[in-house]
Amino acid sequence: MRQNRAARVGDEIQKVISQLLLTEVKDPRIPMMTSVMEVRMSSDLTHATVFLSVYGSQQEKRECMEAVNRASGFIRSQIAKRIKLRVAPELHFKLDESIEKGMDLMNLIDRTIKEDQERAGNHE
């Protein structure tokens, strides 16, 4: 577990939001393949930036972010009930596309290796 308080609180909030999105937020615009990748807390614990990874098209991602933002009041109230904090942090949701970018990069590397192997095979 991480050492500083903001990081520990962020980890706990990440667990709570993950559970809420999976079991209690019933908006059909939130796909099952939605993951809470990270929660970054401000040093005074009043703001939380929540990074979500959503598997789907750009339209599905946009709709999911709208649904999550709409449910933010409920999510914030549940965080206040489940985690003992003086102030429930204000939530800011952001789309995390690092997994897709990583997959695109891996595909590009694989394609380049394959092309290099084909070129090497043609020159022999």
Question: Key terms for this structure?
Answer:
124 residues; alpha+beta; GMP Synthetase, Chain A, domain 3; 3-stranded mixed β-sheet; 4 helices; 55% helix; 18% strand
Describe the protein's architecture and organization.
Helices cover 55% and strands 18% of the residues. Strands 1-2-3 form a 3-stranded mixed sheet. It is built from 4 helices and 3 strands; from the N terminus they run αββααβα. Helix 1 (5-23) crosses helix 3 (72-82). The chain has one domain: 2-Layer Sandwich (GMP Synthetase, Chain A, domain 3), CATH 3.30.300. Strand 1 and strand 2 form a beta hairpin. The protein starts with a helix and ends with a helix. With 124 residues, it is of the alpha+beta class. The mean pLDDT is 90.
The largest β sheet comes out as: 3 strands, mixed
Going across the major beta sheet, what is the strand order? 1-2-3
What is the number of helices? 4
The CATH superfamily title: K homology (KH) domain
Enter the CATH topology name: GMP Synthetase, Chain A, domain 3
CATH architect. name: 2-Layer Sandwich
- The helix-and-strand class reads alpha+beta
> What low-confidence regions span 5 or more consecutive residues with pLDDT below 50?
none
Give the strand content: 15-25%
Q: How many beta-strand elements?
A: 3
Total domain units: 1
Radius of gyration: 19 Å
Mean pLDDT: 90
Helix content: 40-55%
Instruction: Indicate the CATH class.
Output: Alpha Beta
Principal-axes geometry comes out as elongated
Intertermini distance = 54 Å
Helix and strand element order: HEEHHEH
